[in-house]
Amino acid sequence: MSIVPSLVAFNKKFVEDKRYEEFLTDKFPDKELVIVTCMDTRLVELLPKALGMKNGDAKFIKNAGGILTQPFGSAMRSILVAVYELGAREVAVIGHHGCGMTEFDSEKMVGKFVEQGIDPLVIKTLEDSGIRMDKFLRGFKRPEENVMHSVRMIRRHPLFPAAIPVHGFVMDPETGALEVIVEDYREVER
After folding, report:
1. Same domain as 133, residue 52
2. At 38, phi and psi to the nearest 5?
3. Cβ(165)–Cβ(90) below 8 Å
4. Domain check: are 89 and 151 in the same one?
5. Claim to verify: residue 41 and residue 127 sit in the same structural domain
6. Is 46 within 8 Å of 176 (Cβ atoms)?
7. Which of 13, 28, 119, 149 is the most buried (most CB within 10 A)?
8. What is the pLDDT of residue 70?
9. DSSP string, the chain
10. Domain with 175 in it: what CATH number?
């Protein structure tokens, strides 16, 4: 049975009771910050609370592992939009210990595609056209390495402004404790 009916019923009551009012803000991040992080369910509420963030304080960009896999992908586009259009003046890349993308096995994932009915010919065609599954589905050995990879990709991006600081952190997904991997000391223009 689908979860949709219960979501829609809850939403209807949420709106009727005007429970949205406590979350009202605009599209510009109050703390002028964009955060790139993992989609891990443990971080959904913990990460913003552990940083003292409320709704509207930052732009959050989430994906599996908080990985920037390509310089012209959707995550990097979102960072550029946050900086150029929405007023973000700093970027924080926040990985976490115990991430599901640590030691991720791309071959095993491809096997799951086939188990779920994806024709192996589709995968071969994608590989033959230059989409390498090991790169597309890449994980990492340590969250610190992944954070630095993403920090470097952002800093070196040809369209990213040199004056915008890019910081890197790793969080404990149980306690919210934050470890600074790199703090960028570039001038922050406000």
Report:
1. no
2. -85, 155
3. yes
4. yes
5. no
6. yes
7. 149
8. 86
9. --SHHHHHHHHHHHHHTTGGGGG---SS-TT-EEEEEE--TTHHHHHHHHTT--TTSEEEEEEGGG----TTSHHHHHHHHHHHTS---EEEEEEETT-TTBT--HHHHHHHHHHTT--HHHHHHHHHTT--HHHHT--BS-HHHHHHHHHHHHHH-TTS-TTS-EEEEEE-TTT--EEEEE--------
10. 3.40.1050.10
Q: From the first residue on, what is the mean pLDDT of each consecutive set of 10 residues in the chain (190 residues)?
A: 95 96 95 98 97 97 93 95 98 97 94 97 95 90 95 96 96 97 71
Half-sphere exposure of 144 (CA within 13 A, CB side): 5
Domain region containing 162: 29-102+140-182
Q: Does residue 130 contact residue 56 with C-beta atoms inside 8 Å?
A: no
Residues present in the chain in total: 190
Closest CA to 79 of 59, 96, 63, 95: 59
Q: Tokens 């600081």 map to which residue? A: 165
Whole-angstrom distance, CA of residue 151 vs CA of residue 36 = 10
On the 0-12 / 13-18 / 19+ scale of CB atoms within 10 A, 113 is middle
Lateral strand order in the sheet of 90-96: 58-63, 33-38, 90-96, 166-171, 178-182
**Contact of 91 with 166, CB cutoff 8 Å:** yes
For residue 50, being part of any structural domain is answered with yes
For the chain, what is the domain count?
Answer: 2
